[in-house]
């Protein structure tokens, strides 16, 4: 898993009815884009996390291409 500042970290809900959590990556603390990441959630909460298998990175370049 590799990310850059500005990418989105999506943590998928693990049980029925639990929504995905989306956070913006504000700092990459590992080498060459690897975890851990400092993230900011939509409610303003910040945390340091090492994403697990229930997470994905949505790269900001891919998001730009999808909008065009």
UniProtKB/TrEMBL annotation:
Superkingdom of origin organism: Bacteria
Region (Disordered), start-end ranges: 47-68
Pfam families: DUF1918
Organism for this UniProt entry: Streptomyces macrolidinus
UniProt name for this protein: DUF1918 domain-containing protein
Residue stretches making up the DUF1918 domain: 1-57
Bias-annotated ranges (Basic and acidic residues): 55-68
